[in-house]
Amino acid sequence: MLTVALPKGRIAEQTLEIFETIFGDEFKFESRKLILDMGAFRFLLVRNQDVPTYVAHQAADIGVVGLDVIEEQGLDIIRLLDLGIGKCKVAVGIREDDELDWSKPQMKVASKMVNITRNYFSKKAMGVEVIKLYGSIELAPLVGLADAIVDIVETGTTMKENGLKVAETIMESSAHLIANKHSFLAKKSEIMELYTQMEKVVRGS
Ligand code: PRP
């Protein structure tokens, strides 16, 4: 049996649709249930940012999660396949009337993604004070909490409607199939069979 960690929301739904296409069955969580057993698979519904944790600790053999989360957490997992869903980018946002001033000695940047933020600005040799927030990141530059933000941009609507613009794109992201290293060795044929089937569906769409 393969245990699969899925991130609650649209990506879980779209991943289950891929399973439906492969197996011709209905893959659907009953309301409020966090475990779904279907044939050779057990699906776990977890918080987006927790998917790599479940997989790294082998509470799940495989999982589906955005590249941004994989990058931010830096856990020891295997990245298997780009599913081409949940596309977004991680970007630096500033006020529309502002410019990024790289000559400043230090900048205050608000973000949920503190590691991506630190790495990006240290590569640019810019001193940065990272202010960790848990949501509504777009608010920070509007009220003087930060000079800039690092956040997920999907349609760009949230930034636009809050008078912000993208100053730099840090990375493009999409949902990836990941695996635990030990599971990948112990259950290689099952995982590779699923990988091949998923790849076919993803390529066809
Ligand atoms: C993300 C992000 C932005 C928004 C961007 O939050 O933090 O606020 O989506 O999307 P847009 O470019 O289409 O407007 P999300 O809704 O994923 O919620 P979260 O803060 O709980 O991660």
TrEMBL record:
Its transmembrane ranges are none
Q: Which organism is it from?
A: Hydrogenimonas thermophila
Example GO molecular function: ATP phosphoribosyltransferase activity
Q: What is this protein called?
A: ATP phosphoribosyltransferase
The text the record gives for the protein's domains is: Lacks the C-terminal regulatory region which is replaced by HisZ.
Q: Where in the cell is it found?
A: Cytoplasm
**InterPro entries linked to this entry:** ATP_PRibTrfase_cat, ATP_PRibTrfase_CS, ATP_PRibTrfase_HisG, ATP_PRibTrfase_HisG_short
Reaction equation(s) it catalyzes: 1-(5-phospho-beta-D-ribosyl)-ATP + diphosphate = 5-phospho-alpha-D-ribose 1-diphosphate + ATP
Domain spans labelled ATP phosphoribosyltransferase catalytic: 47-199
Q: What class of enzyme is it?
A: transferase
> Pathway, per UniProt?
Amino-acid biosynthesis; L-histidine biosynthesis; L-histidine from 5-phospho-alpha-D-ribose 1-diphosphate: step 1/9
Q: What CDD domains does its record include?
A: PBP2_HisGs
Lineage: superkingdom? Bacteria
Instruction: Read off the PROSITE patterns from this record.
Output: ATP_P_PHORIBOSYLTR (PS01316)
This protein's UniProt keywords: Amino-acid biosynthesis, ATP-binding, Cytoplasm, Glycosyltransferase, Histidine biosynthesis, Nucleotide-binding, Transferase
